[in-house]
Amino acid sequence: MKGVGGRTRVLKVDPGNPDPEAIREAAALLRRGGLVAFPTETVYGLGANLQDPQAIQELYQVKQRPFEKRATLHIADFRQVEEEKVLVSPAAWELMREFWPGPLTVVLARPDGSTIGFRMPGHPVALALLRQAGVPVVAPSANLTGQEPATRAEQVLEVFKDKIDMVLDGGTTPIGVSSTVVDLSVESPRLLREGAKAAEIKRFMGLG
What we know:
Mean pLDDT: 95
Strand order of the largest sheet: 1-8-2-3-7-4-6-5-9-10
Strand content: 15-25%
Number of strands: 10
Shape: globular
Number of helices: 7
Largest sheet: 10 strands, mixed
Radius of gyration: 16 Å
Distance between the termini: 47 Å
Order of helices and strands: EHEEHEHHEEHEHEEEH
């Protein structure tokens, strides 16, 4: 649902104090089924409304992402974990409270055996957008599947110009490395991806 002429809008925002009007515009686009790229502390994410099947389909198509590869739900509040009715152990709560907001993605199980990933990004633009959106937002990294994640808005546009609705340009992402992913849906937690703060996370979990 690109803008006039199918163009991608670019809104520059202060990474530490984003303009509320820009955040409102981006959030409204997400609610309407648009695709919005935004900065996190790790890399740029490409957000879509999880409740809009057409938006999710478009997200996977533009990223060339296999449909069996699930996208992570980005959240701004711990209550959003509880709302998804997932199984969370005391150890999982401790891990999330220690590293959120921050570069940690956790995979949790639902009672039916399915799983879902959660991440609470530690970036003012991302958190403001997620709060304002009012819908669950999935946001895989803003790159084609298999390519390096974007750390600048210019890199997002090189790949997705005129294919997505908006980019919130908050400058270069502070960390520049993807989040660490931990699978907490199993009895013995597993590290699925070593990313930012991996060593600290492993120490906290008692993993070698």
